[in-house]
Amino acid sequence: MTVAVCTIVRGRQAHLRRLLEGLRRQTDPPDQVVVAWMGGPRPTVPDGMHVDVVDAADPRTTLPLAAARNAARRGAPDADVLVFLDVDVLPSSTLVADYADRCRTTGGLWSGQVDYLPEGVPTAHDDWTEDLLDGAASPHPARTPPPVDTQLANPDLFWSLSFAMRAVDYDRLGGFDEAFVGYGGEDTDFGRRAAAAGLTLWRTAAAKGWHQHHESTSPPVQHVRDIVRNAHTFRERWGEWPMRGWLEAFDARDLVSFRPIDGILELR
Predict the structure, then answer these.
(1) What share of the chain is helix, strand, coil (3-state, %, to 5)?
(2) For residues 99 and 195, is the Cβ–Cβ distance under 8 A?
(3) CA pair distance 55, 135, nearest whole angstrom
(4) Positive or negative torsion for Cα 165, 86, 238, 180
(5) pLDDT at 126
(6) Edge-to-edge strand order for the sheet containing 201-203?
(7) Interatomic CA distance for residues 265 and 268, integer angstroms
(8) What is the pLDDT of residue 47?
(9) Which of 27, 178, 193, 254 has CA atoms 20 to 30 A from the CA of 238?
(10) Looking at residue 58, what DSSP letter applies?
């Protein structure tokens, strides 16, 4: 079975360089690496490494996450197993092998463990070891590593930061729904549709990665328009509001009017 690693990128060249270096260090290298470029400076690829770059820019939004993941999948038409990593993820040396083994033997939708690195780790010279990363990183408070491979009872806990599945299952789902334009909600919808289609969702402490630090805002006010639009799309499909914490935070900042009981969500 052939394995493709897919990532999506806009900017973050240093993060991409480290991700690709992590893929170069794999004990079982992927058969293909695909980068879906969402706009901005075109990605640069290290000398001596073959990477397929596909265009996924969308004039409607700066981060067409659903469409970019689908573009990356189309860039790997012969893959049997798809591994999706956000550009911020630095993979452990066995990540590809760990994911591939689970997809081949068990199937389903797998999310590996991703711990968070502080600013400055790894260094700008990309001089790191896995022991260094493990010593510096911390798990997300809501994503502590499971002691054994564990089924997810709640598909809303699917994490698109790092996941893998058989290509035939991705295609059967139709990939990510491009009705979700830009940032927010597309991953929760994907997890729910996967569960509804009979796929088992799994979490594993293997297939480990580390999230490289970058500046961020909480709530993500720069994406408020995308989030409001996608929240309506999600509610029309599933009958409830997603991303409630963000929507309530936007309302508290007078960026939106959010009255969920009345079915009201509007930009101010």
Answers:
(1) 35, 20, 45
(2) no
(3) 37
(4) negative
(5) 72
(6) 52-55, 32-37, 3-9, 81-85, 162-166, 109-111, 201-203, 150-151
(7) 9
(8) 85
(9) 254
(10) B
What's the full length of the chain, in residues? 268
CA-based Rg of the chain, rounded to a whole angstrom? 18
pTM listed for this prediction:
0.96
**What's the average model confidence in pLDDT over 61-67?**
95
Write out the two tokens for 46: 């290290």
Using the predicted structure, report yes or no on whether residue 123 has a pLDDT greater than 80: no
Both tokens of 74, joined, read 């189309």
Give the lowest-confidence range in 105-109, 126-130, 226-230, 250-254: 126-130
Query: Rounded CA gap, 41 and 58, in Å?
Result: 14
The conformation of residue 61, written as its DSSP 8-state character, comes to B
CA separation (Å) from 214 to 89, 119, 184? 11, 7, 18
Asked whether the predicted pLDDT for residue 142 surpasses 90, the reply is no
* Tokens encoding 106: 């068990």
